[in-house]
Amino acid sequence: MLPKGTRDLLPDDMAKRKYIVHAITKVFEQHAFQQIETPAIELNKTLSGKYGEEGDRLMFKVLPRGEKLNSWANQSLEYIKSNIEEALRYDLTVPFARMVVDQRNNINLPFKRYQIQNVWRADRPQKGRFREFTQCDADVVGPAGIIQEAELLHIYYRSFQELNLPVEIRLNHRSLLQGLAELADASDKLTAFTIGLDKLDKVGWDGVEKEWKLAGINELNPEVKKLLQTKGTLEQQLPLLEEALKSVSSAQRGLAELNQLKSILASSPLENTNLLIDLSLARGLNYYTGCIFEVSALGAEMGSIGGGGRYDDLTGIFGWKDLSGVGISFGLDRIQLVMDQLDLFPKEIGLNAEVLFAYMDEESSLVGFKLAQELRSLGMRCEVYPAAAKMKKQIDFAVKSKIPFLIILGEKERMNKQVTWRNLETGEQETISQTDLYKKFD
């Protein structure tokens, strides 16, 4: 039995995941991002306090082994919690920030990295929500410029274009949320304001307002609620927001940066895609400070399949002050589920063998083994059946394994230096010389 929220990945799953990763990685590398990896286990103090109260609650903590654990036998739960030294990675961004500080002498700024690794969250499992899942992240740290946000939006656009997956990309800015909190007389409760808003998709407006009430945030006035329901293109919405927030000083940075972003994107294909301002977009992680992004698939029943944003001074927690960063993440598991739901994977996807060598006797297996090596050297994916068996059994194996071609070797073929070639999809069959075999796959 598997632990809840985990799953086995069979060859078909892995082929689909490899297809997605290949598409995303190609775009990452075309934008000059370089791959890194960080350990699955980080110090608890590295991760704790970076994701808010809910993040700390969902983090998998790692108990020590052996003598130290035995010494805790009579200790209180609070003592154990406060003395746990290690935890499983909750996301890839905080470990990346820690790595940047640790490796500052080995990197050059701006530093652009991508990372494709598993993360763990002690969440309640449900459709599209696992306890172990894979993130594909791209981040850049160093001198900050809104052109970096434009570049990351292009990575989203081009990656999903490669996958032929229609999406909606929503964006917002933390300073606009701060301005709205100010209008709602909740500027001193910004964290509670954004955490509540981040649950809108799950609990609806009634649920969000209930969360706010518990946090001491009064019922919103109609103007603020109307703004939070604002959704539209940069071209449509920015003039309206500038008018509505002109007297709110905390919102001015966000308005200025979104106007810059609009200018940069004016001549890009993103101008004609589903790129929308959504003032209800909050992204509950505490470390975001500027633009924030979220991606959802069109025509599919699924939550977000990607998200990210600007984080100023996340590295300051680890000792490197005033270093800004911005990044995005793709949810590999959710993208796979969505593409399955929408039937978007190519029919020929996978790494099944293209050819099965079937044989009637052990001596013929030696010939089949030799011929398989020759075809492999030409780039073909070949399989040799492991034992002499009834031909029906070998053919059934090929059909179930979706192997399209069969090469049959018996005593007659072996003696005449021939093979029988069969197309299992069409039924076409002919006997050819062993030296001409490769011509069948030119």
Main attributes?
442 residues; alpha+beta; BirA Bifunctional Protein, domain 2; Rossmann fold; 9-stranded mixed beta sheet; 5-stranded mixed beta sheet; 17 helices
SSE inventory with pairings:
Blueprint: H1 11-30, E1 34-35, E2 41-43, H2 44-47, H3 52-58, E3 61-62, H4 67-71, H5 77-83, E4 86-88, H6 93-102, E5 111-120, E6 132-141, H7 146-162, E7 167-173, H8 174-183, H9 190-197, H10 200-214, H11 222-228, E8 231-232, H12 234-244, H13 252-265, E9 275-278, E10 291-297, E11 306-312, E12 324-331, H14 332-341, E13 355-359, H15 362-377, E14 382-384, H16 391-400, E15 405-409, H17 411-415, E16 418-423, E17 429-433
Parallel strand pairs: 1-5, 7-9, 13-14, 13-15
Antiparallel strand pairs: 2-4, 3-4, 5-6, 6-12, 7-10, 8-9, 10-11, 11-12, 15-16, 16-17
Helix pairs in contact: 1-7, 1-14, 7-13, 8-13, 9-10, 12-13
